[in-house]
């Protein structure tokens, strides 16, 4: 069965976010003399996936792991387990938050003696309840609002602002546009997405996410970084307060055409 174009476009957006923000994590790793592992080949492990095993023998595939003492040929001590995710509609955000929690929390328990962090880089539309669920567990969250992602893709002529009435044909058109992008276009898209981080109204990656990781790396209480939000506006400001614990579809914001990216 052919993959639905809406699902495919959602995967494209999520992967683009992951690739675009990797340089920021790499810079952080270099600053703190850490090793950043990501999907791809690495002599120290088999296959292309970043897979860690919990205390019950269950395997968890991750997007990024920061390691102390790690190298291409040696697995280090985990400092942070980081997942990234895109969600077009808030109705899917609670389930994704639980999925991230399920992948990371067992690993944090296994390595509790070295106090690794859980991190999440999320984009799109998320309920306050979904984000608060992760934050209450000590996760450091970097959040890029839906509108910021939409504007970034416009740089390369793509319209990813959609609603549930968007046709499969329109969605397939956007998938084809992405697949036809030249390397220079992909570079421009990556830069546009990275620029979302410090300008997005609800968070600053450089202040919120990196500062949170820094506190964890330096051995300070990660809970203390919650106070930073007063300066950069809490992720809660991006979500409707009267929908804190409900998962309901958001109205499309902007002039985009409509189910859009599904995942």
Walk me through what this model shows:
By secondary structure, the chain is of the alpha/beta class. The protein has one domain: 3-Layer(aba) Sandwich (Trna Endonuclease, Chain: A, domain 1), CATH 3.40.1350.10. 41% of the residues lie in helices and 16% in strands. It is built from 8 helices and 7 strands, in the order H-E-E-E-E-E-H-E-H-E-H-H-H-H-H. The strands form 2 sheets. The protein has a 5-stranded mixed β-sheet with strand order 1-4-5-6-7, with helices on both faces. Helix 1 (5-31) packs across helix 5 (168-179), helix 1 (5-31) crosses helix 6 (183-199) and helix 2 (93-110) packs parallel to helix 3 (128-135). The chain is globular, with a radius of gyration of 18 Å. The two termini are 18 Å apart. Mean pLDDT is 79; it is low at 198-208 and 220-259.
What sort of overall outline do the alpha carbons produce when their principal axes are compared? globular
Average residue pLDDT: 79
Helical content (DSSP H or I, runs of 4+):
40-55%
In CATH terms, what is the architecture? 3-Layer(aba) Sandwich
Rg over CA atoms, rounded to whole Å, is 18 Å
Catalogue the unreliable spans. 198-208, 220-259
Residue share in β-strands:
15-25%
Q: Name the strands of the widest sheet in spatial order.
A: 1-4-5-6-7
CATH class: Alpha Beta
The ordered string of helix (H) and strand (E) elements is: HEEEEEHEHEHHHHH
The helix/strand class is alpha/beta
Number of E-type strands: 7
Write the CATH fold name. Trna Endonuclease, Chain: A, domain 1
The biggest sheet, with number of strands, parallel, antiparallel or mixed sense and barrel status, is: 5 strands, mixed
Distance between the termini: 18 Å
Number of domains: 1
Count the DSSP helices: 8
């Amino acid at each position: 069965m052919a993959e639905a174009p809406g699902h495919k476009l959602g995967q494209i957006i999520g992967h683009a976010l992951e690739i675009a923000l990797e340089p920021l994590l790499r810079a952080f790793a270099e600053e703190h003399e850490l090793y950043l592992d990501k999907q791809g080949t690495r002599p120290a492990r088999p296959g292309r996936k970043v897979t860690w095993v919990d205390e019950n023998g269950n395997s968890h595939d991750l997007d990024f792991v920061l390691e102390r003492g790690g190298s291409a040929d040696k697995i280090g001590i985990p400092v942070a387990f980081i997942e990234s995710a895109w969600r077009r509609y808030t109705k899917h955000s609670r389930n994704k938050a639980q999925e991230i929690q399920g992948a990371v929390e067992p690993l944090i328990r296994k390595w509790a003696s070295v106090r690794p962090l859980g991190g999440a880089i999320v984009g799109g539309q998320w309920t306050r309840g979904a984000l608060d669920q992760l934050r209450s567990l000590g996760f450091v969250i970097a959040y890029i609002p839906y509108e910021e992602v939409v504007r970034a893709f416009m740089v390369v002529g793509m319209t990813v602002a959609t609603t549930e009435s968007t046709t499969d044909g329109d969605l397939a058109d956007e998938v084809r546009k992405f697949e036809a992008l030249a390397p220079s276009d992909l570079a421009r898209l990556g830069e546009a997405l990275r620029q979302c981080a410090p300008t997005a109204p609800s968070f600053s990656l450089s202040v919120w996410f990196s500062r949170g990781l820094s506190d964890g790396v330096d051995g300070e209480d990660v809970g203390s970084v919650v106070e930073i939000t007063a300066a950069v506006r809490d992720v809660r400001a991006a979500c409707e307060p009267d929908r804190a614990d409900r998962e309901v579809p958001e109205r499309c914001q902007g002039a985009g055409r409509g189910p859009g990216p599904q995942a």
